[in-house]
Each structure stands twice: as C-alpha cells, then as structure tokens.
Amino acid sequence: MSSIANREELDPADLAMIRDVLRTEGFRGLDAQKSSDAKRAASDFLQTEFHNGNRTRESLLLAIRRKQGSRPERSADDGLPLTEGLKRWQDEGGQ
Questions:
Q1: Which residue in 3, 67, 86, 93 has its CB near the most CB atoms, within 10 A?
Q2: What pLDDT score was predicted for residue 70?
Q3: Residue 71: its pLDDT value, please?
Q4: Per the structure, how many domains does the chain have?
Q5: How many CB atoms lie within 10 A of CB 53?
Q6: What pLDDT does 29 receive?
Q7: Widest CA span in the chain
Q8: Which residues of the chain fall below pLDDT 50?
Q9: How far apart are CA 78 and CA 95, in angstroms?
Q10: Which domain holds residue 51?
C-alpha cells in the first residue's frame, strides 16, 4: 500500500524524467531489448531511487548504471545484460 502512495507523489514531469532514463538505458521504447520483468524492475528501482532523494536525470542514470554494473561513460547502445545487482534487488522485493 505504501508503494501506491509513493507512486501518487510523482508528478508528470517526474514520470517523464524516469521514462527518459529508462529509454536511455534500453528499458523503454520500440528498440528496447530487455525482458518485461527487467523493464518492470528497472522502473520500480528508479521510482524508489527518486523517492530516496535521487531527483535529477543524471543521478538516476548513475544509479541504474551502477545496478547494471556499467561505467557512467557507457551508453545504452552497449547492450549490457541485466546484472546480478538489479536481479538481486528485484528478488529481495525492491519497491
């Protein structure tokens, strides 16, 4: 129930920023090659990061790239696989 309340706090601009980060990292858009579960986990992860204080595009990009195990300089075109960090976060009930 608390996750529902958290999602209600996001305004349209915040959601657009999160969608942009997802698209940049290959989790959203027509060319997204990630699985549905990976996309959902990444979206949930970014929303949690946002609520934990990462409120800029750059900080969200750094957070998801850390979870994927990539260096900040890499782009979404690298096609890096979802790493154990993000999988573990999802398995542990990431909100």
A1: 67
A2: 57
A3: 47
A4: 1
A5: 7
A6: 84
A7: 37
A8: 1-7, 71-80
A9: 27
A10: 2-91
Angstrom distance (rounded) from CA 65 to CA 76: 9
Angle, in degrees to the nearest 10, between helices 36-51 and 12-24: 130
pLDDT of residue 11: 94
CB 26 within 8 A of CB 33: yes
Look at residue 60 in the predicted model and tell me its pLDDT: 97
pTM of the predicted structure, to 2 decimals: 0.64
Place of tokens 């750094």: 62
Of 78, 40, 47, 80, whose CA–CA distance to 63 is shortest?
A: 47
CA distances from 85 to 3, 6, 8, 59 (A): 21, 23, 27, 17
Residue 16 to residue 22: CA distance in whole angstroms: 10
